Amino acid sequence: DGGITQSPKYLFRKEGQNVTLSCEQNLNHDAMYWYRQDPGQGLRLIYYSQIVNDFQKGDIAEGYSVSREKKESFPLTVTSAQKNPTAFYLCASSPRESRGYEQYFGPGTRLTVT
Amino acid sequence: GQSLEQPSEVTAVEGAIVQINCTYQTSGFYGLSWYQQHDGGAPTFLSYNGLDGLEETGRFSSFLSRSDSYGYLLLQELQMKDSASYFCAVRGTGQNFVFGPGTRLSVLP
């Protein structure tokens, strides 16, 4: 079965702790994305990567970091510098030929920081 | 920058047709995508319009008018399972995608 996996589904952390969210895809897609969604809101782009070892900031990158060491993996670290980290985090990938317009999403991770 | 506007809520009855509009402002335009998201779930891709006109995929169709900076998603023969939020999205600089605020569709029996 091809798809995108994110783990864990729910994550709880204390303020001041860094936390890393996992995203893996076996679709052989070049591009990968991280979005944040707050209740009742649209998706906001945090970071994206079009190829291995390269990534770009999205609209709300402050307080987040990523790496892209393998085509299949694009982990997101929420650092203690992120002022309001509690949110629903979604990872997506996209085949090159769609130029990003057709994105496939993972099931998401709900992060709660108290 | 980019910004998109959508109605916040739409309500319709089973079997009806509903249209969800999206207007956008972008510095450069490369196409409009539509996604569906059920409560608590992940978005799923519905359609993409790169050129003006209508794209049809089963019960769903999407329309684009680049001269009017406007598009819409048309859902026909509505079913209860179509109750969800619908988002339009455009691409900005590079692969910087911007999503609209979403339209919550409620389908009544």
In short:
Chain A is mostly beta strands. Chain A has strands at residues 4-7, 10-13, 19-25, 31-37, 43-51, 54-57, 64-66, 76-78, 87-94, 104-105, 109-113. In chain A, strands 2, 4, 5, 6, 9, 10 and 11 form a seven-stranded mixed sheet that branches. In chain A, strands 1-3-8-7 form a four-stranded antiparallel sheet, with no helix packed on it.
Write the layout of secondary structure elements.
The complex is a heterodimer of chains A (114) and B (109).
Chain A: E1 4-7, E2 10-13, E3 19-25, E4 31-37, E5 43-51, E6 54-57, E7 64-66, E8 76-78, E9 87-94, E10 104-105, E11 109-113
Parallel strand pairs in A: 2-11
Antiparallel strand pairs in A: 1-3, 3-8, 4-5, 4-9, 5-6, 7-8, 9-10, 9-11
Chain B: E1 3-5, E2 9-13, E3 18-25, E4 32-37, E5 44-49, E6 53-57, E7 60-65, E8 70-75, E9 84-91, E10 97-99, E11 103-108
Parallel strand pairs in B: 2-11
Antiparallel strand pairs in B: 1-3, 3-8, 4-5, 4-9, 6-7, 7-8, 9-10, 9-11
How would you describe this protein?
The complex is a heterodimer of chains A (about 110) and B (about 110). By secondary structure, chain A is an all-beta fold. Chain A has strands spanning about 5, 10-15, 20-25, 30-35, 45-50, 55, 65, 75-80, 85-95, 105, 110-114. In chain A, the strands form two sheets. In chain A, strands 2, 4, 5, 6, 9, 10 and 11 form a seven-stranded mixed β-sheet that branches. Chain A has a four-stranded antiparallel β-sheet with strand order 1-3-8-7, with no helix packed on it. The model of chain A has no long low-confidence stretch (mean pLDDT about 95). In chain B, strand 7 (about 60-65) and strand 8 (about 70-75) form a beta hairpin. Chain B is globular, with a radius of gyration of 13 Å. In chain B, the strands form two sheets. In chain B, strands 2, 4, 5, 9, 10 and 11 form a six-stranded mixed β-sheet that branches. A five-stranded antiparallel β-sheet of chain B has the order 1-3-8-7-6, with no helix packed on it. Chain B is built from no helices and eleven strands. The mean pLDDT of chain B is about 95. The interface of A and B includes residues 35 and 59 of A.
